[in-house]
Amino acid sequence: MNSIRTIGLTKDFGDLRAVDNLDIDLPQGGVTGFVGPNGAGKSTTIRMLLGLIEPTSGEGEVLGHSINDPSSYLHRVGALIEAPAFYPSLSGEENLRVFATLGGHDPTRIPEMVRIVGLSDRGGDRYKNYSLGMKQRLGIALALLPDPDLLVLDEPTNGLDPVGIVEIRNLLIELGAGGRTVFVSSHLLAEIQAACDSIVMIDHGGVVFSGTMVDLLARNSPTIRATAENEADTNDLIQVATNAGYHSTRVNGGVEIDAPADWAPDLNRLAWQAGITLRELRATSADLEQAFFAMTGNDKTGTE
Amino acid sequence: MRAFRSEWIKLSRRNTLIGFGGAMVGFTVLFTFLGFISVGGGNVDLDGGGSEAFVTEAVLALPDGSMFAMTQVASLLGVIALGLFASNMAGEFNKGTIRMLFVTEPNRIKVLAGKLAALASFVALGIAATLAASVGIGALLAPGMGVDTSAWWTTEGLAAIGTGYVNITGAVLVVALIGGTIAVLTRSAAIAISIGAAYFIIGEALVTAFWDALGRWGPSAAANTLAVGGAGGAGMLGGAAPAITYATAAVLVVGYGVVSVAVSSAVLARRDVTS
Predict the structure, then answer these.
(1) How far A130 CA lies from chain B's nearest CA (Å)?
(2) What is the complex's ipTM, to 2 decimals?
(3) Within 10 A of A300 (CB to CB), how many other CB atoms are there?
(4) Please, are residues A179 and A12 in contact by the beta-carbon 8 Å criterion?
(5) A179 and A230 part of one domain
(6) Which of A52, A74, A89 sits opposite B15 (nearest CB)?
(7) What does the pLDDT look like over B3-32, one tens digit per residue?
(8) Which residues 11-30 of B are in CB contact (within 8 Å) with A?
(9) CATH code: domain of residue A281
(10) Is A144 part of the contact surface with chain B (CB cutoff 8 Å)?
(11) What are B62-92's pLDDT values in tens digits?
């Protein structure tokens, strides 16, 4: 049984198609990232999976149950949807008690959840006095409250400081390793890469990649970035790479060469022989950010 | 039941208790106090032709004299309860908590039913406290103003208190339910309270000037008639008798309440939660 499965899931808001024939197949267990540009349809997809929005067409299953019957599975799902939303005049723990009571969850878990997200000493404070990071932590505590089989988190590290980001990342990895399925959406691609085993990438409402992180990164070749001390030598540098059989591109005054890292010393030598002095030479391994830009066609990083 | 208990966690906050409960009790106690200190001593004017004073010793000495302040402030209590319902319902949309509620309990009708039941019980308790305060203050002030309250504690007097409580609670709740429905439709507490309060305070009366039927069958007219127990309260204080009977008012109030809940249920059950 898959944790999440959609077939041709589609949602229209008037003339706008927010999600377009989305096919997702998410196995049980592990941490899966859900990424895409703004407006790609991530939040709409998550809301359909959580029964908040009715699909226009297509099918979906969560934990083996149709998304048309959210009552059958939502008690096994913990969710943080976009920005956390709570009652400002209640304390963090009181807010959790409101939702624990409504959902029939064990209220004795509240102190433990508050501790896990690092709010033990502030759980009694009013929510309206929380920082953005604390609100986010409380949202994650709420998602953990039902002891869920599936955790759906939309931007869980939004507003967290670097220490908080690392804590949440480790928590997600721990939860995923413990048999739960974690489906996490984030714009912090480095975090997704660090925490996730697999990834679903969408753009314009449709899936552009779905698979393991290893497979995704393998699709993107490593590059060598080189910059000539004298910018006038850039064309000659490109010619050096071309002569060696590698494709290269001008990027921000330098050159990015689609070549393995171990060719970097050869490049340095060839450039020197060609009378070019390099002021920058570094090999970059493929990362999610590159893959994201390559697959969504949204590269605004300065490629000339 | 879970939704009911969950809602009560929010309602039992000091701010809510003081803000809404305090307003209900405070205004009623104030009106009771003003009523007693302005006792004029004239005769009861049962034919509606005008009495020497707004409140008389004779009126207050009647078995249902203990209810005079409550019946007169019922419409105000209705507007306060409307504010509570509207701010609570619209607040879920404004704060974004509606999505968390519906993810936690996917059966939206259960959420709505529990929420309305909790709010209604809060208002009912508030009216009970208000009634107790009003009768208590009245009983304390009565000897000093020469009002004989012995009839209040007769079987007829206690029955009047019980009946009055039911009538006023029904009248107040239908106003509150309509306010809650406006909030669900507009998703804005400010707009819902503005529309609801304006309608019940002055709007229906204004429209009635051009369309008589609204003055008989409209929600404000029905609620007011129910609150005064048919003709009793209005006639007691010298005003004109309501245009509809108590039974008609009761049926209308129930009808408006059912329609309000049905509209809220239909909207919440079908609408996508995108906020």
Answers:
(1) 15
(2) 0.82
(3) 6
(4) no
(5) no
(6) A89
(7) 999 999 988 888 888 888 888 888 888 888
(8) 13, 15
(9) 3.30.70.120
(10) no
(11) 888 888 888 878 888 888 999 999 999 999 9
Give the tens place of pLDDT for each residue, B194-243. 998 888 888 777 877 777 777 678 888 888 888 877 654 444 444 455 67
State the pTM of this model.
0.81
Mean pLDDT on B157-168: 90
**Closest of B59, B78, B110 to residue B196, by C-alpha:** B78
**Rounded to the nearest 10 degrees, how much is the dihedral formed by the CA atoms of B130, B1, A50, A100?**
80
Which residues in chain B are closer than 8 Å to A53, comparing Cβ atoms?
Answer: 272-274
Residues A203 and A235 in one domain: no
Please give the pLDDT value at position B174: 92
Residue with tokens 């009013």: A126
Q: Write down the pLDDT at residue B44.
A: 44
Task: Look at residue B242 in the predicted model and tell me its pLDDT.
Answer: 64
Domain boundary among A193, A215, A237: A215
The answer for residues whose C-beta is within 8 angstroms of residue A106's C-beta and 6 or more apart is A100
Name the strand (E) or helix (H) holding A248.
strand A248-251
Which residue in A has a C-alpha nearest to residue B101's C-alpha?
A: A99
Using one digit for the tens of pLDDT, what is the confidence trace for B34-69?
A: 878 777 654 444 344 444 446 677 778 888 888 888
Q: For chain B, how many structural domains are there in total?
A: 1
Name chain A contacts of B103, Cβ cutoff 8 Å. 50-52, 74, 77, 79, 81
> What stretch of H or E contains B192?
helix B189-198
Residues 6+ apart with CB under 8 A from A120: A111, A114
- Could you tell me the CA-to-CA distances from A33 to A27, A29, A235, B18 in Å, in that order? 13, 13, 39, 47
Given the structure tokens 């002030």, which residue do they identify?
Answer: B141
Q: Chain A residues with CB inside 8 Å of B105's CB?
A: 102-103
Note whether B44 and B59 are within 8 A (CB): yes
- Residue holding tokens 């020497």? B52
Range of the domain at B132: 2-39+51-270
**Cross-chain residue pair A103–B105, CB shorter than 8 Å:** yes
Q: Which residues contact B111 (CB under 8 A, 6 or more apart)?
A: A102, B3, B101, B102, B105, B268
B 80-119 near A (Cβ less than 8 A): 95-97, 99-107, 111, 114
Cα dihedral A191, A195, A201, A207 in deg (nearest 10)? -160
Domain span at residue A34 reads 4-215
Q: Which residues pair with A303 in a beta bridge?
A: A251
Residue contact B274–A101, C-beta within 8 A: no
- Please tell me the predicted confidence (pLDDT) of residue A299: 54
For chain A, residues with pLDDT lower than 70 are 218-221, 285-286, 297-304
Tell me if B44 is assigned to some domain. no
Q: How many angstroms separate the CA atoms of A15 and A31, rounded? A: 34
- What value, to the nearest 5°, has the Cα angle with vertex B148 and ends B146 and B153? 150
Residues A96 and A159 in one domain: yes
